[in-house]
Amino acid sequence: MDVLLEAIELTKQYKGLKAVAGYSVKISRGEIRGLIGPNGAGKTTTFNLLTSMVKSTSGNIYFEGKKITGVRADQIARLGICRTFQNIRLFKNLTVLENVLIAAQIKKKYNFMSVLLSSPSFLREEKHLVDRSLELLETMGLINAKDIKARNLPYGQQRKLEIARALAVGPKLLLLDEPAAGMNPSESTELMGLIRYLRDKFKLTIFLIEHDMKFVMNLCEKIQVLNYGTLIAEGSAAEIQNNPDVISAYLGRAVESA
Amino acid sequence: MDAGLVEATNRQKQLPFKAAAGLILLFAVLMVMNFVLNGYYLRIVNLVGINIILVVSLNLTNGFTGIFSLGHAAFMAIGGYTVALLTMPVERKAVYLPDLPSFLAHVYLPFLPSLIIAGLLAVICAYLIGYPVLKLRGHYLAVATLGFMVIINVLIMNFRDITRGNSGLTGLQPYTNIWWTYAVAVITLYVIWRVLNSTYGRAMTAIREDDLAAEAVGVNLVSIKLMSFAIGAFFAAIGGALYGHLLTMVSPNDFSYSMMFGLVVMLVVGGIGSIPGAVFGAVIVTLLPELFLNKLERGIDLLGIHLPQMFGVSQVLMSVAIILIVIFKPKGLLGK
Amino acid sequence: MLKADNLNVFYDQIQAIKDVSFEIQEGELVALLGANGAGKTTIIRTISGLQKLRSGKITYNGQDISTTEAHKLVRLGISQSPEGRQIFGRLTVLENLQIGAFIKDKKADIGAEIKYIYDLFPALKEREKLAAGALSGGEQQMLAIGRALMSSPKLLLLDEPSLGLAPLLVEKIFEVIQTLKRNNITILLVEQNVYKALEIADRAYVLESGAIKLHGTAGDLLNNSEVKKAYLGG
Amino acid sequence: MSSDYFIQQLTNALSLGSIYALTAIGYTIVYGILRLINFAHGDILMLGAYFAGIIFVQLAMPFPAAIILSMMLAALIGVTIERAAYRPLRRATEETTLITSFAVSILMQNLAMMIFSPQPKKFEIPGFLQTVHTMGNVSFTNMKVLIILLSVVLMVALTIFIKRTKMGIAMRASAENIDASTMMGIDVNAVVRVAFIIGSSLAAVAGLMLGGQYGQVSPLMGFVPGLKAFVAAVIGGIGNIPGAALGGYLLGIGEVLFVGLLPSQFSEFRDAFVFIVLILVLLVRPTGILGIEEDRRV
Amino acid sequence: SGQSNSGETESEGAGDSTIKIGGIFNITGGQASLDQPSLNAFQLAADEINASGGVNGQQIEVISVDGKSDPATTTSAVQELVDVKKVKVVAGLSDSTYVLAAGPIAQQAGIPFITSGATAPEIPDQVGDYMFLAPFGDNIQAYAAADFALNDLNADTAWVLTDTGSDYTLGLAKYFKERYLDKGGKISLEDKYNGASDVDFSAQITRLKNLPEQPKVLFVSAQPDKCGLVVKQLRDMGVDTPVIGGDGYDTPDLVKLGGVPQTNNTYFTTHVSLGNTDGSVTKFVDAYKSKYNKEPENAFAALAYDTMYLIADAIGRAGSDDPTAIRDALLQTDGFKGVTGTISYQDGSRIPLKSVTIMKVDNGNFEFVKEVLPN
Ligand SMILES: Nc1ncnc2c1ncn2[C@@H]1O[C@H](COP(=O)(O)OP(=O)(O)OP(=O)(O)O)[C@@H](O)[C@H]1O
Ligand SMILES: Nc1ncnc2c1ncn2[C@@H]1O[C@H](COP(=O)(O)OP(=O)(O)OP(=O)(O)O)[C@@H](O)[C@H]1O
Ligand SMILES: CC(C)C[C@H](N)C(=O)O
Ligand SMILES: [Mg+2]
Ligand SMILES: [Mg+2]
């Protein structure tokens, strides 16, 4: 098994409270993994730790076998871990295309001098960036909105744009924090299809947090359940649904898998 | 930065022609001005140009990167003093600044290299101060940079051997003329426009919009913020030097609160985050008091009514005008 | 109880609400459904006075409230749990609840209300002294609902109360809503969880691009093929 | 160094710190709610001092009446400024509100110069306040005692007001989220008005203290103390009322001791010292000593 | 107050009938308390001259501009006077720092610039040969003060407190120390403050009080807006040692702001005693009072008044309003009698050697002590 990401005993302590306590995970390349758990269980915090947006109190993270604990957040992105946010965080006053371009450009090759001189290599590279971004927007079905300011997009499209933006960085691992939140059942079914498609097209590994059980159970090959910062279960959708601890802490009753 | 940046590549092709036409027009206008205007009006034209340099560069940090800096005047001071000291003839230093450290006492450089050295020195300072301070946000950053300005001011006031303290350095060579000023202004506009239409500029606006998200897509916050701050500092220093050599003096008072706020006023009145706005703000806020309000307060006959002398009226009217503009056009006169 | 006639609302030039009319009877639970960006939140904000009307009229218990200031509406008994929760992050959980009762007399005893809310959401009691900003998304949602109840409203506006909640809590929230209804609180409910919303609502309006597309009893809409296709995933 | 010396410096420091603290509270209270740095605050202080002077000397009213009336007049000015210049800008950017308040400040300074003349004027205080007490090598006037006591009284009263009254709670809520406060039935405009009333009347007290301590008032007298008080508010954590008081005292004490304890050639670096302290505090605590960390939750 | 000669009555077409004289003053901003009275007196003198027939049969037109206490505006304003208003002479300003900024503009245009109030003796050399001072130089008054301290007050130990915020205060303290040490005095302690921002001197005063041996005199080199403040704080903290200062003290503000018992035992050097019953002084004071309904605020008013007469005198002697001719005539000035004393620019020096008046504050009144001419 080709392990893409491994976290060992991650802990995040806030003043009186351990938001994440000794969390470990191993995710293999190409997998779609789910992370569920009651509100406040520490799911978002876990994502924050994995992307260095929050410093861990202890524990280690390895990505493609390399230790990345404590690496700066922007470098994590460059290494190939990208994410979306639970509360959408787009560059609101920039256009859809600009949002994607900014993410796409981390691979740019020109330097400051060629910017000033607008050298051929600069122009070539810029064109390449734009082309690549447009292509991505096409894939995500956002091409017609490319010149609209992000703040003016409908909510569903904003979520898609956030995914597009993360993809533009060229990640190997994509972390999605409640991608289906605020979507109605038809919209979330559509999103499920899209995520599968993206996984295949971009050879992604996906790790997602979601409260929509239909969504998680259908999409994820393996699911982890977090409660009070610790894992209480890990396994396939079927295993999770029938785990009594999970039912009492989280599900309330077994979900009828669709 | 606007939606059009996508078309940047296309535009680049027609650009040389448009740019050349613009430059020729500017040259012609300056030529005519130089010919018909007397020293006073030329000074105003110069002031306008210098303020364009300063406001456009301030706009890069405050408008495009969302770094609320009040440190521009400090960089102007660094530039103004550096160039004043480098271009002062050695013989004059001997009598005027007898206690100057010897490495300064014996140098004499022409204007252009001095300007560049001043700019680079400001860049170094920008990195030194920016590295710790740019971690702050919003108003906290604003006061910290304001503090930087005060500290530079206090240093200038107290290193009298070099700066003559509060008295400033006077009788500087009147190097600044409209050619220098507008050449630098054009370069400033060009550089900032190029930067904005590159990955650097986009990263800057991304930071302004949401720094956390920017980080999440691989933008190195520290280095991009520093770059923005440093580019601003570079042009501020050169603007400060041009300013000093226009007034033929530099003194700490020149580079203090009123200068700083004056620049922010131009920025906001014109329209923060827009290059034409910055230019427009610089022009209007420079000209309004100089050509109109100052005359009004000295007493004037208006449509047969004699208005008496009322010094202070220009500041009052200017303040009221600013407040009204901001209330009715909160995004500035040219803001979107 | 609440009657809206031909509401038109604009954000600058953009029209978000187009000629919308609806009404809510006393004691009713009315659901407001619609895709993202349809204008549901805008309607909630307009009713509660946070968004200005371009034209149209809203009456509440016969009183014209079209231009009444938002803070006065709370005193008239209109309260809401807003989209995005908007809790006071620096105040403690308890203080948030206390502020919910701001309109009540200083001396009034709000202990009973607080106890009621802690019974509904025990998680809040556990975190009583914690700054609300440190709560997780779901906990904040509970707090927002609890806070809205503190003013003992007659008309409660709930904007996507189940958003981001764990399944257990979604159940809970819907139970709470039904309890509130039984306690004779009139409710306007905005929900993406269309199925559940229609299960408990008396009537519903479906909003599309700022205009009312459909309305009827909840049962009718549950069986409406258009609704099924667009909102229930087939 | 003798202990007398230290005590003398400390009394100096306490009275300066009290004035900074009172002024800083005004900055903080308004900033907390509106995220507005009200640069005109220093000028309200100046006007307060002028009002007190006029009431006490020209109108020959008793000194306590002068204090109270000048507080009321300053409050009125503060509320008027808020209504006319700041309310239309509730949602404007930081730079915009900053320069608006700066414009208001310039406006007030120039109007004051036109009305009161640019010359500094003597500020009269009752004779008993000028009495000098000497204990050993330590001397101070009754005015200094009044400054310190009155400041403490006012700050305690304010703390009780904020903690205990509904208006106090409403202020804290509005400081956090204006929209949500409205949803709770809080009249935010009224809250803002109260913030300006409190801030401006405290500034008036600070102004008359400055006038009393230094014996003069002038149209530009508010700028420097205003700025220092603002720095104090930031050091304490702007938006936080105890923080403003703490920052005010720290700054006052730091400043006086800096000048007093170090050799005299450092005296001129006083302002640099103030701002270096500020920057250092911010580097360690980016939102000031008692400031709450800005929300960077994702 | 609508002054007949003020402002731009757009009579530029009437050109040759008037002699245009530029007045540059900081009428607003931090310098206003010095310069506003100066402008008043400057205008007063022009009115008087015009009423008595003008100079060379021509009327004087004063064009005054506001430097706004801002160096950039000041230089801009002078440039405007020179280039646009085409004035023949520029005069004004009380602060050496501003004169050093504005002077070079006039110098470059070949227009004489007479500063009414700036006293830094380096000014003419630094600006050039069109630059004149109406008052004496700071060296002269500081020497007088040092001599007075040593000989008349028998004070051989001094504390020197300097405002480092201006050329004037720095220079004054420098010359005082130079002379004082030279003549055998001892400086117990030097201390400083920044006049641009400091209003609280308690730390410095406490340091003074803790000197093992108290100095016999306090030389406080302060600007007019601060001297009363320093004296008051000294007295309030229990220091009763005599204080000496420069011409910056010569303003009613000293007593108004310093307080009555507090300013006792304070001495200062100045240009003239305004309480002098000398004919020219009372004439000036009365004229000022009748025109502006208030006492002249300070000696800088008198200096500006003299400056206008000095200019008129030079134009009269030059017989033309050609700037260079005026400059040459100014250089020839010998024994011009003004309110502030006698002005002569001898030996090509452009700083007059004027006698220094020493005053003492006594229960709020300025009392003449002596007049000296140090060497
Ligand atoms: N900055 C912080 N300071 C203190 N506590 C925090 C902070 N951030 C998060 N927490 C606490 O950590 C716990 C985990 O929060 P987290 O946001 O990770 O939950 P979650 O599992 O994502 O929940 P949800 O599904 O509601 O989004 C919560 O109890 C929260 O209150
Ligand atoms: N502040 C605003 N400025 C401009 N347009 C806005 C603003 N708020 C909302 N809109 C626009 O108004 C329309 C209606 O938005 P609203 O938030 O009411 O939708 P909604 O039905 O609540 O959607 P959601 O399910 O996403 O909450 C949308 O097109 C939205 O983009
Ligand atoms: C106000 C004055 C005392 C100023 C002083 N004469 C100077 O040259 O600056
Ligand atoms: Mg979460
Ligand atoms: Mg909504």
UniProtKB/TrEMBL annotation, chain A:
Transmembrane segments: none annotated. One of its GO terms (molecular function) is ATP binding. Signal peptide: none annotated. Keywords: ATP-binding, Nucleotide-binding, Transport. GO terms for biological process: D-alanine transmembrane transport; L-alanine transport; L-isoleucine import across plasma membrane; L-valine import across plasma membrane. InterPro entries: AAA+_ATPase (IPR003593), ABC_AA/LPS_Transport (IPR051120), ABC_transporter-like_ATP-bd (IPR003439), BCA_ABC_TP_C (IPR032823), P-loop_NTPase (IPR027417). Residues 5-253 form the ABC transporter domain. It holds the Pfam family BCA_ABC_TP_C. GO terms for cellular component: plasma membrane. Gene3D superfamilies: P-loop containing nucleotide triphosphate hydrolases. This is Branched-chain amino acid transport system ATP-binding protein. It comes from Desulfotruncus arcticus DSM 17038.
TrEMBL record, chain B:
Keywords: Cell membrane, Membrane, Transmembrane, Transmembrane helix. It is found in: Cell membrane. It comes from the Bacteria. The chain crosses the membrane at residues 15-34, 40-60, 67-87, 107-129, 141-159, 179-196, 217-243, 255-288, 309-328. GO terms for cellular component: plasma membrane. It is a multi-pass membrane protein. GO terms for molecular function: branched-chain amino acid transmembrane transporter activity. Its main location: membrane. This is Branched-chain amino acid transport system permease protein. It comes from Desulfotruncus arcticus DSM 17038.
From TrEMBL, chain C:
Pfam families: ABC_tran. Gene3D superfamilies: P-loop containing nucleotide triphosphate hydrolases (3.40.50.300). The keyword Kinase does not apply. Keywords: Amino-acid transport, ATP-binding, Nucleotide-binding, Transport. Residues 2-234 form the ABC transporter domain. InterPro entries: AAA+_ATPase, ABC_branched_ATPase_LivF/BraG, ABC_transporter-like_ATP-bd, ABC_transporter-like_CS, BCAA_Transport_ATP-bd_LivF, P-loop_NTPase. Belongs to the ABC transporter superfamily. This is Branched-chain amino acid transport system ATP-binding protein.
UniProtKB/TrEMBL annotation, chain D:
It comes from the Bacteria. Coiled coil: none annotated. The lineage of its organism: Bacteria, Bacillati, Bacillota, Clostridia, Eubacteriales. The chain crosses the membrane at residues 19-37, 98-116, 145-162, 190-214, 272-292. It is found in: Cell membrane. One of its GO terms (biological process) is L-isoleucine import across plasma membrane. GO terms for cellular component: plasma membrane. This is Branched-chain amino acid transport system permease protein. Pfam families: BPD_transp_2. One of its GO terms (molecular function) is L-leucine transmembrane transporter activity. The keyword Membrane applies. It is a multi-pass membrane protein. Its main location: membrane. Keywords: Amino-acid transport, Cell inner membrane, Cell membrane, Membrane, Transmembrane, Transmembrane helix, Transport. Belongs to the binding-protein-dependent transport system permease family. LivHM subfamily. The keyword Transferase does not apply.
